[in-house]
Write a structure and sequence with these properties.
The protein has three helices and seven strands. It has helices at about 20-30, 80-100, 125-140, and strands at about 45-50, 50-55, 60, 65, 105-115, 145-150, 160-170. The strands form two sheets. The chain has a five-stranded mixed beta sheet with strand order 1-2-7-5-6, covered by helices on one side. β3 (about 60) and β4 form a beta hairpin. The longest helix is centred in the middle third of the chain and has 23 residues, at about 80-100. Mean pLDDT is about 90; it is low at about 5-15.
């Protein structure tokens, strides 16, 4: 059974956009899911338990290459890091898609974002907004989620951003 992108909490009538599948919404906002990244260690990209799917941390990889390297507030700007966060969330969605199919997503539950931060940098929420905003574009009201944006000293492969995603599925 596929979930449909409808907002059951809104009093607004359903529109044609609300009747699209998530795959169609991705295309409508000009995005495609990449091939899921191969695990860099002893873990799996995504795991389903009950009606929740948890992804492992996703880096801003495109065809196996980091889109950005370094620390935010030093060699990476907030704007660059927000773009990296978009890539991370697309990779997380690709992991979900590989496991259960993106069209089975009912809603986004939580985003956990880690930002490799220079000393005194405290704009982590602005960086993770890149992921949150893209989820809103794709999933509308079903993309509203709980979130953490955490500054850390280092991340794997000198990446500026790593994101985990939890979604509810049908």
């Amino acid at each position: 059974m596929s979930a449909t992108p409808t907002d059951t909490t809104s009093s607004e009538p359903n529109t044609a956009a609300a009747q699209q599948t998530w795959t169609q919404r991705l295309a409508a906002v000009g995005r495609t899911l990449p091939s899921p990244a191969a695990p860099a260690g002893n873990y799996i990209p995504a795991l389903r338990t009950g009606n929740l799917v948890f992804t492992s941390g996703q880096l801003p990889l495109v065809d196996g290459v980091l889109t950005h390297e370094g620390k935010v507030g030093a060699s990476v700007s907030v704007e660059e890091a927000a773009l990296a966060a978009e890539v991370c969330i697309l990779n997380a969605l690709a992991a979900v898609d590989q496991l259960v199919g993106i069209d089975s997503v009912v809603r986004v539950v939580k985003v956990v974002g880690f930002v490799a931060s220079a000393d005194d940098f405290n704009g982590q929420p602005l960086v993770i907004n890149g992921a949150s905003n893209l989820l809103g574009e794709i999933f509308g009201d079903a993309g509203q989620h709980a979130r953490s944006a955490v500054g850390v000293a280092e991340l794997p492969r000198n990446t500026p951003v790593e994101i985990e995603l939890i979604v509810e599925v049908a």
